[in-house]
Amino acid sequence: MAGKGEESGTGGSWLASLFERLKTAVERATDMICSEEPETLDEAEKLARRAGVIARAAKLVDAIRPRVEAEDSEEDEMGGRIYDPEEDERLRRELAANCDRIEAIIESKRDRQAGGGHPETGGPQGPGEPSPDRTG
Fold this sequence. Notes:
This protein is mainly α.
């Protein structure tokens, strides 16, 4: 299981080494099946299955490449994003407003339940709350 160090970038050399080894293994396997000449239908089917397995392996190995390249890049420590303090503050305000709205909805539901105005009994719905489904 990958540790925090590997996810945060300190395992970058390990991941790059793994990528190179897997890439080499896929290339060797590709060379092997490309040199085979099937003589029967069964051999051709086996060769096709092997090619499919190698193609899937190549796709998975290639999926590692962006992580290796990102870990190699000094300026890409934040996944290619540029830190903008104003954008960060705007997102924090938006998150706080959404949290406040959700807390208000939860509080109004608790108040209604305490007062007997449970949504299933037909009590009025607050802002941002869907009406109860009466079809069931």
